[in-house]
């Protein structure tokens, strides 16, 4: 797989280059900012692009806005947003409107190199990989919506795990529940959010985010997801 990297930290950028090449992939370009990003894509389209959220010159939202622009201009290009931050406004728009070949992972929560590389391959294949913390923050941001208020703490936890791509059995093991209980929670989530379950885990969560995003933008929050009682 040929991968483009757009990351301002030279240490992380070069580290990603070495990691990807060691894993058998080719880095088609390693850019420190978005100034040459579109020209590079026009000249040499990769199989996947990795972008940070906060890039020069302002270090605010250049990367996530570039990701949105890329999705409009090159909708078939798989994207991974890899950042320390959840840029809630643009992240919600990106996740709500583009449901395939997309990932949003938090750097500090990537704990396993093998899983990270596997995530890239899953995104390349059209999958969706979302860090559950990203989902939790987006759901918290939208909690003014009455439908989100209907979810219990346990249902929010299950929803975040579904968004991470976990199977019902994996969620059951993670939360020490039976598979039947997990299925019951998932059914309840979509009933409360007035969504039809379509059998595809990540797509269902993305549909929920798209649905609640229509209620409008809220203020950013750093609220952490609440702890659940077993």
TrEMBL record:
Pfam families: GerE (PF00196), Response_reg (PF00072). It comes from the Bacteria. Keywords: DNA-binding, Phosphoprotein, Transcription, Transcription regulation. The lineage of its organism: Bacteria, Bacillati, Actinomycetota, Actinomycetes, Micrococcales. InterPro entries: CheY-like_superfamily (IPR011006), NreC/VraR/RcsB-like_REC (IPR058245), Sig_transdc_resp-reg_C-effctor (IPR016032), Sig_transdc_resp-reg_receiver (IPR001789), Tscrpt_reg_LuxR_C (IPR000792), WalR-like (IPR039420). It comes from Yaniella flava. CDD domains: LuxR_C_like, REC_NarL-like. SUPFAM superfamilies: C-terminal effector domain of the bipartite response regulators (SSF46894), CheY-like (SSF52172). Coiled coil: none annotated. This is Response regulator transcription factor. PANTHER family: TRANSCRIPTIONAL REGULATORY PROTEIN NARL-RELATED, TWO-COMPONENT RESPONSE REGULATOR. The modification 4-aspartylphosphate is found at residue 52. Residues 144-214 form the HTH luxR-type domain. Residues 2-122 form the Response regulatory domain.
């Amino acid at each position: 797989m040929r991968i483009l990297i757009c990351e301002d930290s030279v240490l992380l950028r070069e580290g990603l280059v070495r990691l990807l090449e060691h894993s058998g992939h080719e880095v088609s370009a390693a850019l420190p900012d978005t100034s040459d990003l579109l020209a590079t894509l026009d000249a040499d389209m990769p199989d996947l692009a990795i972008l940070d959220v906060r890039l020069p010159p302002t270090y605010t939202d250049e990367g996530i806005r570039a990701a949105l622009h890329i999705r409009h201009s090159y909708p078939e290009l798989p994207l991974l947003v890899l950042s320390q931050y959840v840029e809630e406004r643009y992240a919600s728009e990106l996740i709500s409107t583009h449901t395939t070949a997309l990932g949003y992972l938090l750097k500090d929560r990537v704990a396993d190199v093998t899983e990270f590389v596997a995530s890239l391959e899953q995104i390349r294949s059209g999958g969706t990989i979302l860090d559950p913390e990203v989902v939790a923050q987006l759901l918290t941001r939208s909690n003014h919506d009455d439908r989100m208020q209907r979810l219990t703490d346990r249902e929010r936890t299950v929803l975040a795990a579904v968004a991470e791509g976990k199977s019902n059995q994996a969620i059951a093991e993670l939360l020490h529940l039976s598979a039947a209980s997990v299925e019951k929670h998932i059914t309840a989530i979509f009933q409360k959010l007035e969504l039809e379950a379509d059998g595809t885990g990540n797509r269902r969560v993305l549909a929920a985010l798209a649905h609640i995003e229509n209620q409008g933008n809220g203020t950013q929050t750093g609220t952490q997801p609440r702890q659940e009682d077993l």
